């Protein structure tokens, strides 16, 4: 005979005074990591995806240079796609902005649009415009 043989087969007690606790609240009692400050944010940051920066070939850089020169000379509207490095982890994301080029600041290495958006020339991966069909690309 073991220590609990006398109670092992008794029915489970259900209080007649108190309602049973919902399953969500019962589970919350056993969430040990919820007490760690920032745990949820760290998990979210780890799960966040980044992209790797594309390295352009010599031919792609030459085409980009031609398109930049044409865009500045003709004052055409362009869509610039460029890489923005992530401040917290390796990689980053690609952002696109559309507008007319105001000027190219070669000293700072910036492309400046009329709406004052400044993009690093070294981060540009593509320049698109319907006007480029005139020059064959």
Give a structural overview:
This protein is an alpha+beta fold. It has a domain at 58-135: SH3 type barrels. 23% of the residues lie in helices and 26% in strands. It is built from three helices and five strands, in the order H-H-H-E-E-E-E-E. The protein has helices spanning 23-28, 39-47, 58-74; strands spanning 77-85, 92-105, 110-113, 118-120, 124-128. A five-stranded antiparallel sheet has the order 4-3-2-1-5, with helices on one face. The protein is rod-shaped and about 95 Å long. 7% of the residues are buried.
Radius of gyration: 30 Å
What form results from the Cα inertia axes? rod-shaped
Percent of sequence in beta strands: 25-35%
The major beta sheet can be summarized as: 5 strands, antiparallel
Residues in helices, as a percent range: 10-25%
Pattern of helices and strands: HHHEEEEE
**Which CATH top level class of one domain fits?**
Mainly Beta
The oligomeric state of the chains shown is single chain
* Poorly predicted parts: none
Largest sheet, order of strands side by side?
A: 4-3-2-1-5
Count of discrete alpha- or pi-helical segments spanning 4 or more residues: 3
Number of beta-strand segments: 5
> What structural class do the secondary elements suggest?
alpha+beta
Distance between the termini: 90 Å
Mean model confidence by pLDDT: 87
């Amino acid at each position: 005979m073991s220590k609990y043989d006398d109670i092992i087969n008794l029915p489970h007690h259900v209080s007649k005074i108190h309602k049973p606790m919902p399953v969500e609240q019962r589970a919350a009692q056993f969430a040990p990591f919820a007490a760690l400050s920032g745990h949820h944010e760290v998990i979210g940051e780890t799960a966040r995806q980044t992209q790797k920066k594309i390295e352009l070939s010599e031919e792609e850089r030459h085409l980009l240079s031609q398109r930049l020169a044409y865009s500045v000379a003709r004052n055409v509207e362009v869509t610039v796609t460029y890489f923005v490095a992530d401040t917290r982890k390796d990689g980053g994301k690609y952002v696109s902005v559309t507008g007319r080029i105001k000027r190219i600041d070669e000293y700072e290495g910036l492309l400046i649009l009329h709406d004052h958006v400044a993009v690093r020339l070294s981060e540009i991966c593509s320049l698109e415009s319907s006007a480029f069909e005139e020059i064959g690309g």
